[in-house]
Every structure is written in structure tokens, then in C-alpha cells.
Amino acid sequence: MRDIGPLRNSAEKNKPPLAHRIEELRQKVNLLDPRRLAENSGATLLEIAPGFVELRLSLLDETIIVSCPEFNMRLFNQERGVGIAQQALILYYFQTADGAPNTNRWISFADLPDGRFYNQAFQGYTGHELARRFQNDCQAFVQACEKAGGIPNPIGDAAFSFLLLPRVPLLALMWQGDEDFPSNFQLLFDASASHYLPTDACAIAGSMLTRQLIKSAKT
Predict the structure, then answer these.
(1) Distant-in-sequence, close-in-space partners of 38: CB < 8 Å, separation ≥ 6
(2) pLDDT tens per residue across span 105-149
(3) What is the Cα–Cα distance from 35 to 103, expressed in whole angstroms?
(4) CA–CA separation, 119 vs 109, rounded Å?
(5) Cβ–Cβ < 8 Å for 210, 120
(6) pLDDT: is 154 or 80 the higher one?
(7) For residue 134, what is the enclosing H or E element?
(8) Whose CB has fewer CB within 10 Å in the chain, the N or C terminal residue?
(9) What is 106-218's CATH number, 1.10.3470, 2.60.40, 3.30.230, 3.30.310?
(10) Residue ranges per domain, the chain?
(11) Over the chain, what is the mean pLDDT?
(12) Overall pTM > 0.85
């Protein structure tokens, strides 16, 4: 019989780093009680068969079905799977969620644990990307936020809150510019964010919302 060990090792080496992380996260959340996971995360738990349950939760405008104990994921009423970034975000969420209440107080990415070190990069692929797309067009930003399901918030010149995950609200904020200063865009997190996602997963969340808003502006 041919030794497939080298082939397996090669395949493992060629996996994206995030794929390795997903496998590690699955192993960790598999040790947790699904009922406690549902309670802490705000997911809905459904018992499918003895020893098998499903967790259902919203991710922006989609409903994700998570089978337990495998923690495989699919979109509700669809057979196609869930993207690798979305899988990682949900597994981080399950691992971190402790049921802490939201504070209704907004903080920047820099205010998250260790966020100050990566804030410039975060702003580069969130706020700066929104500025490139919307520039000084406040109405276009408002329309994109409304189309993406945002809820108006009385901050800045335009702001909308989004429930990225059941207990992870984000705020997309615009300060409109003038002839001297360009418009400024920023994504803010509820101060409870670290109870639900580690800072690197908050970065994924911000990137995901940014792409959703840009996509909404194109359609």
C-alpha cells in the first residue's frame, strides 16, 4: 500500500492559516455545552435527535444553521456552505460569548484589547474603504445603510447600527466633509464587544460589514 503520509502532510501545509484555526476552534467549542452556548450567544437551539442539536443564529442578513456536535455550518434553506471567514467568526463568537449585556456605549477599534496596535490597519480596510466608495455623498451612504438593514442612530452626520451577530452590534458612522476636509467614516463597537469576540475577530466583523455596505451601494 502506498504511504500517503507525505501527501497528507503536504495538503495540511497548503491549507490556509484560517482553515487551521477553524479546525482548532471546532475542537474547543465541541467541549462546550450547546445549551450554554445558545444561552450565552443568543442563538436558538433545536433538538434534532438524541445527542444531536442545531444552533441557529443570524449573521447580518443571513440565518446560519450550525450542527452539533460537528459544528458544520450551512445557510438556512440552502445547501451551500458558509464562507471560511464567516465560519471563523461564528466559532470565535461561540468560544468567547459569556452572556454579558450590551452597554449601548460605542467604542472604537483602538479601545478594544490590543486594538490600538492594529487600529491603523483596521481603519485602512474599513473607514478608508467606505470613504473611497462614498466620498462626500451622505445620501448614498444613508441609502446603502438602509438597504443593508441598518437602524438610524443620532451620531455624526449619518450613522446606522447593525446587529452583526445576535449580541454584536456595530455602528457605521459618517462625518461629512467640506471643501477643506474630506469626509470621515468609522466603524464602532459596543463596549461589550470583547465579551463576544476577540479583537482579531472584531477585525473580521468590521471588514464584513464594510463589504456589505459597499455591496449594497452597488445593487
Answers:
(1) 44, 45, 55
(2) 999 999 999 999 999 999 999 999 999 999 999 999 999 999 999
(3) 24
(4) 6
(5) no
(6) 154
(7) helix 127-134
(8) N
(9) 3.30.310
(10) 5-96, 106-218
(11) 90
(12) yes
